[in-house]
Every structure is written in structure tokens, then in C-alpha cells.
Amino acid sequence: MKARQKVKRKGPAKDRVFGCDLVEHLQSSGHDIPQVLKSCTEFVEQHGIKDGIYRISGISSNIQKLR
Predict the structure, then answer these.
(1) Number of other residues whose CB lies within 10 A of the CB of residue 15
(2) d(CA 29, CA 52)
(3) Out of 4, 14, 35, 48, which could bridge 44 as a Cys pair, Cβ 3.0 to 4.6 Å?
(4) Per-residue H/E/C for the chain
(5) What is the pLDDT of residue 1?
(6) Which residues cross the membrane (predicted)?
(7) Is the predicted pLDDT of residue 39 greater than 70, yes or no?
């Protein structure tokens, strides 16, 4: 059975990521972070810009406290 047919049988995918519930997927895979997110993050960190990629936005006094 094709993957697309499996998704259609389960019904609407409004609460699903790539055809399944995210929590269910993480529990069955034994990971804390979805592989697609991990792969994208690793790519950005290796090939993306360095400054400002993970910004802390907000009130400057709060930012200073975090530093």
C-alpha cells in the first residue's frame, strides 16, 4: 500500500506531521526532536549565516539579564 493511501485511510491530517501525530512519532522513534527538524538545523548551522541566526528579541533589559 502506498504511503499516500495510508494517510487517506486515517482521515484528515490536521493534527499530524507527515501523516502521523508528532508525539506518537517521537515516542515510536525514540527521539526528542523530529529528524527533519534536526537535519534542517544542522544544515543551517553548517551553511547559513553565523550572526543573528538565533536571535533573542524583546526588552533590552531582559536580554542583558539573559547574557
Answers:
(1) 11
(2) 32
(3) 48
(4) CCHHHHHHHHCCCCCEECCEEHHHHHHHHCCCCCHHHHHHHHHHHHHCCCCCCCCCCCCHHHHHHHC
(5) 45
(6) none
(7) yes
